[in-house]
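Dear colleague,

Thank you for sharing your sequence with our group. We've completed the structure prediction you requested, and as agreed, I am returning the results in plain text so they can be pasted directly into your records. Please verify that the sequence below matches your submission; if there's any discrepancy, let me know and we will rerun it promptly.
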Amino acid sequence: MGGNCLKSRGKKKDDENLYEGSKDQSLNLSSKPENPKAAVKGNQPKSWEIRKAGLKREDFEFVLRENETLIKPPGSINGQRFVIDSCKNCNIFLADFCDSVEVDDCVGCSIFVGPCSSSVFVRNVKECNIVMIAQQLRTRDCKNLLVLLYSQTFPVIELTDEIKFACYQGPNYEGLEEQMARAKLNIWNNKWSEIYDFNPPAPNAPRHYSLYPSDAPEVYVFVQDFFHRLEHSDFANQRLDVATFCDTIPLTTGLAPVPGTENILVVILPSSVMYAKDLIPSFARQGGVYLKRTRVMKLSKDQISNLFLNNPHMKSLSTPFADRGLFLRDYL
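Please find the predicted structure tokens below.
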């Protein structure tokens, strides 16, 4: 049986408004990102701005590094732009809040990117594994990547092939939830599997990307190996815990197929949002139950009518939904 919280294909502006408590009453259900070619690389500081702030550019970049473990602990980036360029066979860990991140011309690296309030740009990168939390991922000219992703908007790929996506799985470390709040990222709005491909394949040709379940062997092996190596490096001196995995971001199956399941819509009302995270372990304990997708959204009057007033499934409910929420079987 597959669990599925209410879905939305809202634009970036919708999600940000919802997180910030916007008073907008309508929800845009567009299936594509708004003008995805108009890529803006965040509020990147100019060189004179960095000097004026007393910062050193070399503290916000890893360039031309090879066979190293490179770590930026909490507080070391503090919302600045960060650059990873021309690195080879490195383990890179950015455990801090960033404005934007650029990853260019890297080969054979394993990279962790902490909460990023703008986009993570990945260009001309080959044979790398990336774990990241960002407002958006954008790739170009990439091949053979494994990406464990939290993205609050649609991930965008261009001229990219053999890229595998799975839901975010990362380590616990002090300050992660605070960093997500600073980046204005809502844990419930992860669109990791809703990929927009600028260069879709020809009819009957395979897609340029694949969606992997979180327990896929390839995902499991990478996660265990990457964080095991970090645990036995200088990482232990950075007050970061890599022995346990983050449960801040819900683990979802997204649009990855789960054979032999049925869908259930779970609606949790604002007054009871505190119970939402309690549902996840209760589902897991039952076995064979998966969280598919989650959204925080405001409903229009028509959506409320369709869900609660004109829905034949409501007639079979024995208790009112006003306390905490409701379950609608086979509604989706």
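Summary note from our side: Residues 217-231 form the longest helix (15 residues).

Kind regards,
the structure core
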